[in-house]
Structure formats: C-alpha cells, structure tokens
User: Fold these one by one.
Assistant:
Number 1:
Amino acid sequence: MNDRMRSDRRDSTRYLVKETVFVFPRPCFTVVGRLQDLSRDGIGFVYGVFDEDGCDLAKTREIDILFEGSFYLSCVPCEVVYDVDVERPTLSGIGTRRCGVKFGNLSHHQFESIQSVLRGANNPRPRDLS
C-alpha cells in the first residue's frame, strides 16, 4: 500500500456504511465497486480487475451509487483522486484496486441523500487506512 493511500487527505470524517453499497463509475460500466467509506466530500471503494478491461477510471466524471435496499443515486459528479493497486493481479489475472473520488457539485437530492446516510452512520473510520 503506498503513502498516498495511507494518509487521509479528506478534510471531513469518513464513515463505514452498514449496508452493502455498489459504485458504478461512468462511463466504465464494466467496473463495479463496493463502497469502503463515505464522507460528505467523497467516497472510497474497491473493485476487481480482470486482466486488462480497458477502462481508465481517471476519465470518470460521474458515478452511480446503489445503496442496496434503500435508494439509487445516478450521475453523481466526481473527480478521481486516486486509483491504486491493493492486490496485484495473480496468475489468473485477477487483482484488486482502491479508488477514491471527490464529489463535485451535487444536486439538492444527491446532497440530501448522502447526508441521510451519514446521519445513520455512527462508526467513523480510523484516519489511517492501513
């Protein structure tokens, strides 16, 4: 794990979310991530890499977020802050990466939805991500 991933660069507290949450970077719909933590400023998620899927997450400008059993947020504006290897690909070509995104200008609905999730989260994530 590199230093950029270990140090928390967000100004706001990260929270673990109790429910399963999936992240779909746009336009790379071949990538499906699982939320690791959430703050009012952005999210961190992990995703699997299968060989070379041809998707460059650095080009991602929007994400969709599915809060399983709750709601779906579409076209959430964002900027990729980092996208790093967590587990290098094995001989079978499967690896794991962690991606952090910073939210852009959220709509009122998107902002309120994320705030409602944060109000229900009472488990701050430690500042050290290791």
Number 2:
Amino acid sequence: MDTLVVAVPPARVRVLLGLAGALALVTVGADPAGRLLAVPAAVAALALAVRDLRSGPVLRADRTGVEVLQGLRRVRAEWGRVRRIQVVRDRRAELLELDLGDGLVLLSRHRLGRLPADVLADLLSVRAAAERS
C-alpha cells in the first residue's frame, strides 16, 4: 500500500449536526440559565461538524510521512521523525497512538471511523513500502 487516507466518518458529522439541532431546539423552550448552557454547546457541536466537513481526512500517510488533523490544524511528520505507532487499550477504549517526535497524537475509533488496529496495520504497510522505496 502506497497511500492511506482515513476520511472523517459521515456518521460523526450527522451526529454532531443532530446534536446541534437538538440543542438549538432546547434553547427555544429553556429558561435563561438553560440558554446559557445550551447555546454554547450547540455552537460548539456545529463548529465541530463544520470543521469535520471542511477539513479533509483525519489521517493521511504516504511514502514521505504521516499527516494528522488535530483540532483545527494539521500536524505533519516525516517517517524518520515518527518514533512509535501503536494501539493503546484500557478497559473502555482502544486508541491509535502516534508519537511524532515533538508530540503525541491519540485517535479513537469514533474519530477514525474504523478499528484502530486496522488503521495501525495499514499505517505499518505504508511505512514498510516507504522504507523499501
């Protein structure tokens, strides 16, 4: 495999948009204190949905390195800077951990839209292909 692209899961965007809509409806019938809580939450959910729609893939890997969407910015690291790629498990969650040298990136199954172990296998395949070429 030469290139890996993990897109934002469409279900994530639908859930965020639905949450923003539900919170907007709550603000209509809420008292002032309820509005104070619901409006910022609705705006945050809408902002996350728009970011996911506009930002492109969550993870991209090719022969030059790996690029991850983290918050509102993209973090890029060449394969030589990537110290460790592994799946971290605890009782409740399984996360893909990328040690990019100057920072640690954790990606959940919900963020990836796939099992972290499957993404790990694909990432290692891309990295191996990059090392061969």
